[in-house]
Amino acid sequence: MHGTLPEVTGVSIAMNDTPTTTAPSSPRMKGDYFPVEEGKPLTLGPPRRQNSGTNTPRVRPTTLDIPGLTKSKVSPDGRIAQRDVGAKLVIVMVGLPARGKSYITKKLARYLNWLQHDTKIFNVGERRRHEKAVPNVPKEPEDEAMEQNSSFFDPDNTKASQIREQVARETLDELLDYILNKGGSVGIFDATNSTLDRRKMVMDRIRERAGPDLNVLFLESRCVDENLLEANMRLKLNGPDYRDMDPVVALEDFKKRIKVYEKAYVPLGDYEEKNHMPYIQMIDVGRKIISHQIKGFLMAQANYYLLNFNLAPRQIWITRHGLSHDNISGKIGGDSDLAPEGVQYAKSLAKFMDEKRHEWDMKQIEDMRKTHFPPQPGDATPPNPYYRPQSPTAERPRPNANTSAPNGTSTTSSATDLSALDEDYTPKAFCVWTSMLKRSISTAQFFNDEEYDTKQMRMLDELNAGVMEGLTYSCISTQHPTEYAARKRDKLHYRYPGPGGEGYLDIINRLRPVIVELERMTDHVLLVGHRSVARVLLAYFRGLKREEVADLDVPIGMLYCLEPKPYGVDFKAYRWHKEKEWFYEVPNFELKRAEDDML
Amino acid sequence: MHGTLPEVTGVSIAMNDTPTTTAPSSPRMKGDYFPVEEGKPLTLGPPRRQNSGTNTPRVRPTTLDIPGLTKSKVSPDGRIAQRDVGAKLVIVMVGLPARGKSYITKKLARYLNWLQHDTKIFNVGERRRHEKAVPNVPKEPEDEAMEQNSSFFDPDNTKASQIREQVARETLDELLDYILNKGGSVGIFDATNSTLDRRKMVMDRIRERAGPDLNVLFLESRCVDENLLEANMRLKLNGPDYRDMDPVVALEDFKKRIKVYEKAYVPLGDYEEKNHMPYIQMIDVGRKIISHQIKGFLMAQANYYLLNFNLAPRQIWITRHGLSHDNISGKIGGDSDLAPEGVQYAKSLAKFMDEKRHEWDMKQIEDMRKTHFPPQPGDATPPNPYYRPQSPTAERPRPNANTSAPNGTSTTSSATDLSALDEDYTPKAFCVWTSMLKRSISTAQFFNDEEYDTKQMRMLDELNAGVMEGLTYSCISTQHPTEYAARKRDKLHYRYPGPGGEGYLDIINRLRPVIVELERMTDHVLLVGHRSVARVLLAYFRGLKREEVADLDVPIGMLYCLEPKPYGVDFKAYRWHKEKEWFYEVPNFELKRAEDDML
């Protein structure tokens, strides 16, 4: 390892071609925390070359890679270097149908891509559906669960399972091509993978093609909570096969189908632990998480993100500050206060949020009333386990006027007294987050402190323009033409020169804890940001492509609403009407590219 | 909840004084993800007031509080407000003796304090030892495990256990005083708490005094891995009671004592899950972690940190860049390159690291040879499960010259050929991390790319002095006397004015991912930082007090080495000798305050 190592070309490699013994010298997977037990692990693939010769590839450390914030010879842009296979990650999904695998997969991929780690989902079911080379190939159990002929997916039906395995292998190979040859950093293998045999096949194939260094994480979603499982299954009932069926009959039918796959299902656990394989098992989405031998920066990042999952219904609002003095003069950066129109905007905003918040509460109570177990026709959709089911009236405690109101006053029912509508209903808290800049703080000045929790966060500050702070774009184009051109060429990767100068990658990095917090919390929140901040936040929630982020059209006066749902995120946009001092929804709103590409 | 709510003074409170029923309206703990099951949870304490009247305290959201980066009316400094009991955290440790509880406790408290969240450990055993009011009170099982009279700690000995419970309660009350009355944010209750009865007592007392909002996290350390457990126990054998005993006899003795506590031990799990109580169970330090109903920002932070624990032996080196041109002229900030003396420093550094790295490898191989199971007298201490035990010679594979070296060459043994010394030994990778500033990058220029993995990180950049960049301190004192005085008054909380201007709290915040990464990785690392960065890094590893951080004496030319050990962190310091171009250890080195308090 040190400079004076004698040349022993070939010897050490040859040494490792001897049959593997059961002794501790058997190859250890990188990052294993404990010595490998006696007996060769089944899924390690080809033995690891040891570092005893100068010309054998050495084990490279895999440490944090943050695009824009880290840099090395092999990775000048901070992305994971193609060479560093050991820093890349394959995530293998595991789980029975209706356990929310695809939901988790999509969300995780969105997060990792937003962090600028190239991530792609490889879905076995989708490949099969579009497969032309293998005609009449049966679908994944997951798809089939929605169809009539469930016997075809019985594990005892060997012919069908052989064909399925072939398609799974092809999908996996596509994933490995992406990781090994096409610059991908994370590949997610989305299929049920609920049998040990399938998982062994997957590991063997990965080790065969990628060697021992590539990190593999098994990620399972399990449901122990019967209500959650029922809610998940009911979500499936909104699919084409069941939509017009009596939901009670449909649910029974669907449950029968799942039973078929349960026959050969082995949850993650004993086998993986015995073989030192990293895994994460999410139980009841965010209730309980088991993390086993997490290693590598990306795996730790994914784990942290998954730990903060929840499905609580709530709203996330995003807007920019009201019109500021610098907005009028066209200067970038700075810390000017609101212009009169901006103050007007701030007033409308507080009022409109009051209204929307109340509207949401009313809708929530209504939805809760529409949720039954077992489901009934016409039930609120999509179902959500957080909609607490209404209990039968007989079991509900009614306030007893004699004991509970000693002064003789009874609770009066009014339109705004939510507890009178449903005494079990606890309205959510509502957070208002601003940056630490005046124009943002002032935009939140009319929110009632008793009803809203206002907080300032430096992470939400506008992109720092370094030496260009206080200039107009036309100034920059004449005084700093080279910088102007460089920014125009690649705004996402451009960083303003001078102390404190930032670029979009810096904004992503400092918004990362904010995003994780938004995922973690269960309250409503309004973020009063700035152009770059609003762009980066929307890019996360809308899963925008990398090249779209820095050019997004996010004008002053727009208010965006994101509502996480079991199937994704509902998105609405409202435009402020200055004269009416009110917001109006923009129908069928879609984010688009800004017309002025310098903004 | 909305402005027009009718006044129903007292009614809603009175309503909640009715006997609690078994129906779903029973109080839910804040942040519970799922409806409380039928039957009142045992440990919820007084029922939660509902939000049905305007004068009942409403549930406040607990979102991220980052000192220096967040701000609100109730928390102008970003610390957790005294009012926000729901944002505070009590951590209750659980675990049998010799499971590393105190190690985890100390490390976690060090991390949280470093993040500026006031954290304190309340150790039941320590209190008992110093207890004057209750003379002759027996010790905690944990202490007793080291003593002779183990029958005294038998759970069947009711009198002793009553006295022990009393001291536990007093310690807990002290913790609650700290959280509720003395501004503390996190209190850690360090005791075995291995029985259900004890844990119920703890929860009841917390709910009784703090109400339902205060977050409580149970944190257990379990050892399933026999080698790790044995290593932990052997660490105890270095204590005063066993030091001079035959280690084999001592170990047997210690094991017998632990058996006593196992009688009434109930690990975290079923009971806590049934009662919706958040917990984290660490199994085999970092191998496997179960996180249950983690809620609140602080709990999520603690969870993330604990997930990245490992005990791998390795070295963490910290130094500042070599002398730069700006150092000579006394200018702060900027991006000047190294002066000739700085280049000389860079050369010495690369050579010295080569030497120290090799020395460490040799020591490691030697330690591994000295580790036996069962332990033998004279074994290397402290034991570490990462020191792979040497297998009996008979089971060790020896390279067979006939099959492994087809060219007839045998492996030659040389002083530097580590694989010849121990063919199982894989030397660790070595990372060199610099900032993105020239003087730091240049200081790492002589490290061999084949042997060291060099990476630049923006997180390691020097504190940005905003508008003061490029000035000398004497300039600042004359041109900006108010700023000069403000910084002198409170350097830790001072932030330089102007775009990008930073303070020490910003440095802590941007080094947080670096610290977590240092805890996560198992390789050696050298960090080539700057004054503020080195101060903040050392503050973390040395657990410095808040007021010490910003005034630490960290001159150019010093090199610090931190080596995590099972009992803490070994700390050494080396001083560069310019003429000899080499580093020499400073005996009994202690960090001290800088003489010039403006630096």
From TrEMBL, chains A, B:
Site (Transition state stabilizer) residue list: 530
Gene3D superfamilies associated with the record:
P-loop containing nucleotide triphosphate hydrolases (3.40.50.300), Phosphoglycerate mutase-like (3.40.50.1240)
Q: Which residues cross the membrane?
A: none
UniProt KW keywords: ATP-binding, Nucleotide-binding
Q: GO cellular component annotations, sorted alphabetically?
A: cytosol
Output the superkingdom of the source species.
Eukaryota
Skewed-composition ranges (Low complexity): 409-419
- Annotated region (Disordered) at 1-75, 132-157, 370-419
Composition bias type Pro residues, residue spans = 374-386
Domain 6-phosphofructo-2-kinase, residue spans:
81-313
Tell me, what is one Gene Ontology molecular-function annotation carried by this entry?
A: 6-phosphofructo-2-kinase activity
What processes in GO biological process is this protein linked to? fructose 2,6-bisphosphate metabolic process; fructose metabolic process
Pfam families for the chain? 6PF2K, His_Phos_1
Q: Where is the composition biased (Polar residues)?
A: 15-25, 147-157
Task: List, alphabetically, the InterPro entries matched.
Answer: 6Pfruct_kin, 6Phosfructo_kin, His_Pase_superF_clade-1, His_PPase_superfam, P-loop_NTPase
PANTHER family, alphabetized: 6-PHOSPHOFRUCTO-2-KINASE 1, 6-PHOSPHOFRUCTO-2-KINASE/FRUCTOSE-2,6-BISPHOSPHATASE
Q: What is this protein called?
A: 6-phosphofructo-2-kinase domain-containing protein
Upper classification of the source organism reads: Eukaryota, Fungi, Dikarya, Ascomycota, Pezizomycotina
